[in-house]
């Protein structure tokens, strides 16, 4: 009888535990479904619609991960499709970028905090907008919090400091403003702190130097000012990224374990600290575009692990020692746009085949390498010293005057208060009147030219070679006097010849007509700018020759552009290949398209002003020996713009250059996509093809009939559908409905990820 009793107790306990588990699973599922509703049903969560069962059992994808422990959600990672960051955001919903105006971040976080066992939370590119609520601290078990690429603004809530278990705090690419929190040292376990690309202002918080566990810190692309504190106590720090702020102190002592230090585009001054030569683990050091002076320590070049050293565009001076040693791993050095004199050290000169060295814009004793005369650097140094002397004198005068003023004020304030106040008021009124009458208007043309020319200097940060001005004789020798055996073809913009320079470098020489209306000086400025455009997927402009007259009838009044030689043909020709070893499968085509999209996106947004109308077509996409795509024929609109202005007879550039210029590139890229899908059959047909065939893409049968068989046999249907949809948008007759190039790039990368996942699944199925 007793045994039966104990059996009944055990049985009822078991039933109760099963019921509790089922109820807990159901509650967690309900919370996840509510979160999907709050997020306005993003496509990445569509699988939840038809899924029956515990969402914890869903297979992970690159965009969605749910991990559960003890029947509770412990890890939630969701990556949406709203990657685009807008330039202006005022705190309200933006259609197609943020969630709708009905979204409530407070309600969303309230639901989120009921998942009390969460240890990993990553909500990226979901369009979440609004100030981050204080109640986020209720997720007390969090070890990783990633809310990047959203539209959150306001200050970071102080209650976040209660998340004492946090290892990773990532709030990149939002709109948080105010100062960086000074309570970050509350995170005693924090290893990764990333607040990139927000709107933080004010000083760098000293509390960060007390977070001994930090390994990676990134606060770049903000507006931090003032002094950078001593960070030497951060013994675990490996990566420090403070690029593009307004920090203006001397460089402080750094932790000895640093591997990457990126401090470019600030206003740091003073000398490069000798202490940096003790950073034996350092691999990447970027101090470019600051106000550093003096001669850098020679040991900096010979650090044991240094690979990348960028000192470009500072006020560094003196001569580098001839015995300078270069580290065995050093692969890139940029000392350009400084005031160095003397000769280039032998290790930077003789090892040119192993090290990429940039040294233009100095006063080095090197012929024909964009060097200023030494007197220019000497005068600049003297002027800098005079300026520093004047600054010190002014400071002494200000301090002395302030002391004298305070003394006089203390003596006379009781007797002369009323008179002093009256006179001060009169002076303020006079001062304001003078200020109101001061001239502030500046010609828009002057501003535009200054902006254009200053960008030429700025583009040097891309590490491009100095643009070389070739003589016509050099090019004739390189191309065997433009012999027909060196002729490579003729495109829309001119004839192209293959050449070999005196040093053995192969080049492509493009010949363009020089119109009499063109200003040679303006043309040189534009060509210099184009030569500084440096991107892995752009064919590099190495130099040029402008032959504006002479006895040679054949080659007079011409511009010759000298490009790097890309040996493996063009994309259009490869799409026509029938040999199996040269055929491009779907993954190959996506990789090439992504590379070209990155290049065009750089031309649109990475340069000020942007470069549009880039004559995009498959024959302009060249492939190197590793099948890396490089875009040619870009920037022709920049070269021809001067002519356009003259033809307009003072009315400025043609309106067509401004209107829909982005759409022109998107539209033409749409036909590159189309040719990638269906093959070269579309070449030359364009609008005719649109009218007669494009409608067939809407059906599976139509796709099977039209799409290149190589694509059909190597693609997943989902990846193909993404690109087909993107193609239709790009070649839309209505320019306003076409996507931006940022959207184009994102969709192509998404299609590639989907394809990679499908390939991995297929491989897994075949091996199991």
UniProtKB/TrEMBL annotation:
The Protein kinase domain is annotated at: 482-751
Could you tell me the superkingdom of the organism this chain comes from? Eukaryota
Keywords from the named record: Glycoprotein, Kinase, Leucine-rich repeat, Membrane, Receptor, Repeat, Signal, Transferase, Transmembrane, Transmembrane helix
Membrane-crossing segments per the record: 392-417
Task: Return the SUPFAM superfamilies for the record.
Answer: L domain-like, Protein kinase-like (PK-like)
What subcellular locations does the record give? Answer: Membrane
Membrane topology field: Single-pass membrane protein
Any one Gene Ontology MF annotation carried by this entry is:
protein serine/threonine kinase activity
* Family matches, as InterPro entries: Kinase-like_dom_sf, Leu-rich_rpt, Leu-rich_rpt_typical-subtyp, LRR_dom_sf, LRR_R13L4/SHOC2-like, Plant_LRR-RLKs, Prot_kinase_dom, Ser-Thr/Tyr_kinase_cat_dom
Alphabetical GO CC annotations of the entry are:
membrane
Q: Where is the signal peptide?
A: 1-24
Say yes or no: keyword Lyase present. Answer: no
Q: Which PANTHER family match?
A: LEUCINE-RICH REPEAT PROTEIN KINASE FAMILY PROTEIN (PTHR48056:SF71), LRR RECEPTOR-LIKE SERINE/THREONINE-PROTEIN KINASE-RELATED (PTHR48056)
Give the protein name, as stated in the record.
Putative inactive leucine-rich repeat receptor-like protein kinase At3g03770
């Amino acid at each position: 009888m007793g045994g039966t009793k104990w059996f009944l107790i055990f049985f009822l306990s078991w039933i109760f535990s099963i019921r509790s588990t089922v109820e807990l699973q159901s509650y967690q599922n309900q919370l996840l479904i509510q979160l999907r509703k709050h997020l306005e049903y993003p496509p990445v969560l569509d699988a939840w619609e038809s899924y029956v069962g515990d969402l914890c059992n869903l297979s992970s994808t690159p965009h969605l991960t749910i991990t559960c422990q003890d029947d509770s959600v412990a890890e939630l990672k969701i990556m949406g499709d709203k990657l685009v960051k807008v330039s202006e955001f005022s705190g309200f919903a933006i259609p197609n970028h943020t969630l709708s105006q009905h979204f409530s971040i407070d309600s969303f976080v309230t639901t989120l905090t009921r998942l009390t066992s969460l240890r990993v939370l990553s909500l990226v590119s979901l369009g979440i907008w609004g100030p981050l609520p204080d109640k986020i601290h209720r997720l007390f078990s969090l070890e990783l919090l990633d809310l990047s690429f959203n539209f959150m603004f306001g200050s970071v809530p102080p209650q976040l400091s209660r998340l004492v278990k946090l290892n990773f705090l990532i709030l990149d690419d939002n709109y948080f403003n105010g100062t960086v929190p000074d309570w970050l040292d509350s995170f005693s376990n924090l290893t990764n702190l990333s607040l990139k690309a927000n709107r933080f202002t004010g000083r760098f918080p000293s509390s960060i130097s007390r977070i001994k566990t930090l390994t990676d810190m990134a606060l770049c692309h903000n507006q931090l000012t003032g002094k950078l504190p001593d960070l030497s106590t951060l013994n675990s720090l490996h990566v420090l990224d403070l690029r593009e702020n307004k920090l203006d102190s001397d460089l402080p002592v750094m932790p000895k374990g640093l591997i990457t230090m990126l401090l470019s585009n600030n206003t740091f001054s003073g000398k490069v600290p000798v202490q940096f030569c003790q950073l034996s683990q350092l691999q990447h050091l970027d101090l470019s575009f600051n106000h550093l002076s003096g001669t850098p320590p020679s040991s900096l070049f010979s650090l044991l692990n240094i690979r990348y050293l960028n000192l470009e565009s500072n006020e560094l001076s003196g001569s580098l020692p001839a015995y300078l040693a270069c580290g065995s791993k050093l692969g890139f050095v940029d000392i350009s746009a400084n005031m160095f004199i003397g000769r280039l050290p032998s290790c930077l000169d003789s090892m040119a085949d192993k090290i990429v060295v940039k040294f233009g814009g100095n006063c080095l004793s090197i012929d024909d390498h964009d060097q200023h005369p030494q007197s220019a650097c000497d005068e600049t140094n003297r002027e800098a010293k005079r300026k520093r002397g004047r600054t010190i004198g002014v400071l002494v005068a200000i301090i002395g005057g302030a002391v004298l003023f305070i003394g006089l004020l203390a003596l006379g304030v009781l007797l002369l208060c009323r008179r002093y106040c009256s006179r001060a008021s009169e002076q303020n009124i006079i001062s304001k009147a003078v200020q109101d009458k001061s001239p502030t208007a500046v010609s828009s043309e002057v501003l535009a030219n200054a902006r254009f020319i200053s960008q030429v200097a700025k583009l040097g940060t891309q590490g491009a070679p100095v643009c070389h001005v070739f003589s016509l004789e050099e090019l004739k020798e390189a191309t065997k006097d433009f012999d027909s055996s060196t002729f490579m073809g003729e495109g829309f913009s001119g004839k192209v010849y293959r050449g070999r320079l005196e040093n053995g470098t192969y080049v492509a020489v493009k010949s363009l007509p020089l119109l009499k209306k063109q200003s040679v000086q303006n043309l040189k400025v534009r060509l210099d700018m184009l030569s500084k455009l440096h991107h892995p997927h752009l064919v590099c402009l190495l130099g040029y020759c402008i032959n504006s007259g002479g006895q040679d009838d054949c080659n007079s009044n011409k511009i010759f552009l000298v490009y790097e030689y890309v040996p493996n043909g063009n994309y259009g020709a490869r799409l026509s290949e029938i040999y199996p070893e040269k055929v491009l499968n779907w993954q190959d085509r996506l990789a090439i398209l992504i590379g070209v999209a990155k290049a065009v996106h750089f031309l649109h947004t990475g340069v000020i002003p942007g470069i549009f109308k880039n004559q995009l077509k498959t024959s302009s996409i060249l492939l190197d020996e590793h099948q890396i795509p490089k875009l040619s024929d870009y920037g022709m609109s920049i070269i021809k713009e001067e002519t356009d202005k003259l033809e307009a007879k003072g009315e400025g550039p043609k309106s067509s250059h401004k209107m829909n210029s982005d759409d022109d590139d998107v539209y033409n890229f749409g036909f590159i996509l189309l040719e990638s899908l269906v093959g070269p059959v579309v070449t030359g047909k364009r609008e005719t093809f649109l009218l007669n065939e494009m409608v067939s893409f809407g059906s599976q049968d139509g796709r099977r009939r039209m799409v290149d068989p190589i694509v059909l046999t190597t693609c997943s249907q989902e990846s193909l559908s993404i690109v087909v949809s993107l193609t239709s948008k790009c070649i839309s007759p209505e320019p306003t409905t076409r996507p931006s190039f940022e959207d184009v790039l994102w969709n192509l990368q998404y299609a590639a990820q989907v394809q990679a996942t499908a390939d991995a699944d297929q491989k897994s199925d075949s091996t199991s």
